[in-house]
């Protein structure tokens, strides 16, 4: 017996960890810093770490109360009803729930390219077909409704990533509204705001609730995560905020107790840890500015906790930086073989990454591609 045909499924490539790299190279893990996975350089919210320790003795119980308490806290954060908050096992779990709630076999999902591979993976898991719209390098990966609508063909779901991974670009709310207006009534616009806390923009929840002069909509959902600004990537906690009309669907698509007791208690503590959030956002903004000023290559403006850098040959640069103790993300898997992505680290980590990258670029003597020129990227493909 064999599994079903998975030939159309693309495996997700996660950023490499310090222990993995150190074992492979036969070196001490303390020699390395990891700036490849957009993790929080300050670690988890201290309040969340305390909550995890205190909760450890109660993990024999199902997290019904904790799940309800966190749902209420998240709903209060956004000014929505509890029923509009769909807790999940990470942001990818929330993507799964939206697909479960919307897709019939053969429905199309429209996703950005470059973009997060799991949008397409999850769609295929749920027997949906995947189509792509392009964010163009020559336009600095600018996001607007027209870029999506050029490829739109009545797709059931359209994913917008704002801030976008790996480029850091965002789509203004007015453009998301225009996109929603121009698509069919049965098309859901799913706005992935995993990096939303780092952006100087309002959340698309305003479109769901009819805030800030927008009319309330039933065709927009927002994805958020505790992995980034709260530093809880390891406990797997995310959620979707959906229109009121979608409230009843959660009970029918939810995996029982999808968010664990530890995750829910950590989330409850983290959501009120404003000091950790402020510190993390400030570190991110300083690191982005430092890299744009000091890297000897083109660095795109970013509103995430990372930057995208044109280095000419991503594989060569990432491998050489790794050999020198700095792990960054080769963006070839995103379809950008000339670019690397560097997570915003602490001040010391960011300075080390910039110094290492500049030295590697000089030693390898690579030709990087001027902004707005796509010729070299095509040649690298």
Automatic annotation (TrEMBL):
<dbReference type="GO" id="GO:0004400">
    <property type="term" value="F:histidinol-phosphate transaminase activity"/>
</dbReference>
<keyword id="KW-0028">Amino-acid biosynthesis</keyword>
<keyword id="KW-0368">Histidine biosynthesis</keyword>
<dbReference type="Pfam" id="PF00155">
    <property type="entry name" value="Aminotran_1_2"/>
</dbReference>
<comment type="pathway">
    <text>Amino-acid biosynthesis; L-histidine biosynthesis; L-histidine from 5-phospho-alpha-D-ribose 1-diphosphate: step 7/9.</text>
</comment>
<keyword id="KW-0808">Transferase</keyword>
<dbReference type="InterPro" id="IPR004839">
    <property type="entry name" value="Aminotransferase_I/II_large"/>
</dbReference>
<keyword id="KW-0032">Aminotransferase</keyword>
<dbReference type="InterPro" id="IPR015422">
    <property type="entry name" value="PyrdxlP-dep_Trfase_small"/>
</dbReference>
<dbReference type="InterPro" id="IPR015424">
    <property type="entry name" value="PyrdxlP-dep_Trfase"/>
</dbReference>
<dbReference type="GO" id="GO:0000105">
    <property type="term" value="P:L-histidine biosynthetic process"/>
</dbReference>
<feature type="modified residue" description="N6-(pyridoxal phosphate)lysine">
    <location>
        <position position="228"/>
    </location>
</feature>
<dbReference type="InterPro" id="IPR050106">
    <property type="entry name" value="HistidinolP_aminotransfase"/>
</dbReference>
<feature type="domain" description="Aminotransferase class I/classII large">
    <location>
        <begin position="31"/>
        <end position="357"/>
    </location>
</feature>
<dbReference type="GO" id="GO:0030170">
    <property type="term" value="F:pyridoxal phosphate binding"/>
</dbReference>
<comment type="similarity">
    <text>Belongs to the class-II pyridoxal-phosphate-dependent aminotransferase family. Histidinol-phosphate aminotransferase subfamily.</text>
</comment>
<protein>
    <recommendedName>
        <fullName>Histidinol-phosphate aminotransferase</fullName>
        <ecNumber>2.6.1.9</ecNumber>
    </recommendedName>
</protein>
<dbReference type="InterPro" id="IPR015421">
    <property type="entry name" value="PyrdxlP-dep_Trfase_major"/>
</dbReference>
<dbReference type="InterPro" id="IPR005861">
    <property type="entry name" value="HisP_aminotrans"/>
</dbReference>
<keyword id="KW-0663">Pyridoxal phosphate</keyword>
